[in-house]
Structure formats: C-alpha cells, structure tokens
Amino acid sequence: MDLESVNPELAEIDGQVGDILRALQNGFQKLDKIKDANRRSRQLEELTDKMRDCKRLIKDFERVVKDIAGSTDPDTARMLHDRKQSMIKELNSYVALKKQHASENKRVDLFDGPSVEDGFGEENVMLASNMTNQQLMDQGNQLMDETDQAIARSKQTVQETINVGTETAAALKSQTEQMSRIVNELDSIHFSIKKASQMVKEIGRQVATDRCIMALLFLIVAGVIAIIVVKIVNPQNKNVPNIPGLAPPVSRRLLSIVEDI
C-alpha cells in the first residue's frame, strides 16, 4: 500500500527516514576504510547526528499515525505499525554499529602509537588484543610517564602564569601610587597658581592706589608752585589766596614810614 494514499505527511517522513538510513549505511561502509582515529571520530559524530535526526523523524511518524488512527482500517494500521517497527529496527542496527566503532576508537586512543598524519606508518599501530602483557605494561608505563610530563608542564605553565600575574599586580600598584603622587602634585601646583594669581591681583591694586596718590600729590605740588609763581609775579592779585608761611611783599611806602620813625 502506498503511504501517499494514506497520508501525504507520512509519505514525506518515510522518504526522509529512508534517505537518512541510506546515508547511515554508506557512512558506516566508509568508516570501515578510515584508519586515522581523528577522522573516524569526526565521521562517527556526523553519523550520530544523522541517527538523532532519524529518531526524531520516527517519533513524528508515530505521532501522525496516532492522529489518523481513528480514520484508518485495521490493515492500514497494521501496515503503518510494521513500517515503524522496520525503521526502528534498522536504526537500532546502526546504533549498535556506532557503539562498536566507538569502543574500538577508545581502544585505539588508549594503545595506539602515533597516527599516520604524524609521519609514522600504520605498522606502528597496535591493538590491545594483539599485544602481550609485557607490551601492555610497557605501553601503560609510557603513557603514565607522558601523562606525568604533561602534568609537570601544566604545573610549570600555571606557576609562570601566577608569577606574571604577581608581577603585573605589583606594576599596577606602583603605577597607581605614582599616579596618586602626580595628582597630589597637580593639586599643589593648582593651589600655588591660584595663590599667586591672588597675590598678583593684590599687587596690581596696590600699584594702582600708589599711582593715584602720587598723581594727587603731584597735582597739589603743581598747584602750590603755580600759586607761588603768581604771587611773585603779581603780588596785587586779590584772587590768589595767600599761602600759609609765605609773607606778603613789603611795599616801598611802608618802608619809608618805618625809616621816618
């Protein structure tokens, strides 16, 4: 029975599941030919993603089957059930293959020598099942030594990082103190400039006052000199006031009277 005639959505989901299952089949066939552990891991990850998509589609298939259960006859319902079980069975077979390859990858990661990409041939790759107890012990000891060396390098890196952090913190502290001193000096300079500006203003005011006084004294002295000059030149001028301490000139008539006496 054609699924298109039963439900178009079911037919579409069935086609998508079929495409994914064929892709899984081809992917696992290619996986058997891949020798590099890193490439095998990437291939397994891609196949795992496809299996997740297939599982989701099978759940969608089951959901649609439940939605149309009331409108389908027993034969159609049985056919849909068998189709779902077939998809689940095939997907489970690929899940088992994935687990098998994943376990093989773990053994290869644990007991492999360098990979082909590192410049060594595949003859250096040895599975644990083909190794003697002594080889296993030697390989394990070598891995432990490499792990200890890696841990020692990590500790050294951490210590160097701590030292750099300590030096950086000390440098930052010194720079902070220096900046604080600079700020204090700038405040002191600003205060000195402000004080000097005030003093300049005071001196300017004092100089202006002194100039006014000197100008006034000059005017007084000039006035006194002018009066004296006028009195000497024209002693009969009544408009010119007498200056205290300066006696008026003695007339000739007064002098002749004094002589007669």
Key descriptive features of the protein:
Sec20_C, membrane, transmembrane, Methane Monooxygenase Hydroxylase, Chain G, domain 1, mainly alpha, transmembrane helix, 261 residues, 79% helix, single chain
CATH class of the domain at 3-131: Mainly Alpha
Cα distance spanning the termini: 179 Å
- What order do the SSEs take from the amino end to the carboxyl end, as H and E? HHHHHH
Largest sheet: none
- Indicate the CATH topology of the domain at 3-131: Methane Monooxygenase Hydroxylase, Chain G, domain 1
Write the CATH architecture name of the domain at 3-131: Up-down Bundle
Percent helix among the residues? over 70%
Strand content: under 5%
Protein name: t-SNARE coiled-coil homology domain-containing protein
Organism: Oryza brachyantha
Subcellular location: Membrane
GO cellular component, one term: endoplasmic reticulum membrane
Provide an overview of this structure.
By secondary structure, this protein is mostly helical. It has a domain at 3-131: Up-down Bundle (Methane Monooxygenase Hydroxylase, Chain G, domain 1). The chain has helices at residues 3-6, 8-31, 37-67, 74-111, 133-233, 252-260. Helix 2 packs antiparallel against helix 3, helix 2 (8-31) packs parallel to helix 4 and helix 3 runs antiparallel to helix 4 (74-111). The N and C termini lie far apart (179 Å).
Short description:
This protein has 6 helices and no strands.
Topology:
Layout: H1 3-6, H2 8-31, H3 37-67, H4 74-111, H5 133-233, H6 252-260
